Amino acid sequence: VQLVESGGGLVQPGGSLTLSCAASGFTFSSYDMSWYRQAPGKVRELVARIFSVGGSRDYADSVKGRFTISRNNAKYTLSLQMKDLKPEDTAVYYCYAYIRGSDCWGQGTQVTVSS
């Protein structure tokens, strides 16, 4: 199993970024997928989740209306569109799935929101 994030960077407040997670080693369409983030000195938190069945989504209250999670099962890709970014969104963002009894994490991608 491999999860590889990309798309992070430095953005000004109010700006936008799209993160991607390339998945391999498992049947992507069969698993729920999530984005987490961890800011310095804080615990890792769930940002958004998309379910394998029906494609329903849920979001942390802090990002509702600003972030959109999506998946492309044919391309084995998970995405997170982020808009109206705020300094408090600064964190390392991780792709996550629970696969065959194990927590599977990507290496993370840094998002910094600063002027």
Question: Could you walk me through the main structural features you see in this protein, from its secondary elements to its overall organization?
Answer:
0% of the residues lie in helices and 53% in strands. The chain contains no helices and 11 strands. Strands 2, 4, 5, 6, 9, 10 and 11 form a 7-stranded mixed sheet that branches. By secondary structure, the chain is mainly β. The mean pLDDT is 97. It starts with a strand and ends with a strand.
Describe this structure in a few short sentences.
The radius of gyration is 13 Å and the shape is globular. It has no helices and eleven strands.
Q: What is the string of SSEs from the N terminus onward? A: EEEEEEEEEEE
| Discrete helix count | 0
Kindly report the average pLDDT value. Answer: 97
The poorly predicted ranges are none
Q: Which structural category do the helix and sheet elements fall into?
A: mainly beta
Beta-strand percentage range = over 45%
- How does the overall form come out from the CA principal axes? globular
| Helical content class | under 10%
The largest pleated sheet is described as:
7 strands, mixed
Count every beta strand, where a strand is a DSSP E run of 2 or more residues: 11
**Termini gap:** 37 Å
Radius of gyration over C-alpha positions, nearest whole angstrom: 13 Å
Distinctive features:
mainly beta; 7-stranded mixed β-sheet; 4-stranded antiparallel β-sheet
What's the arrangement of secondary structure elements?
Layout: E1 2-6, E2 9-11, E3 17-24, E4 33-38, E5 45-50, E6 57-59, E7 67-72, E8 77-82, E9 91-99, E10 102-105, E11 109-113
Parallel strand pairs: 2-11
Antiparallel strand pairs: 1-3, 3-8, 4-5, 4-9, 5-6, 7-8, 9-10, 9-11
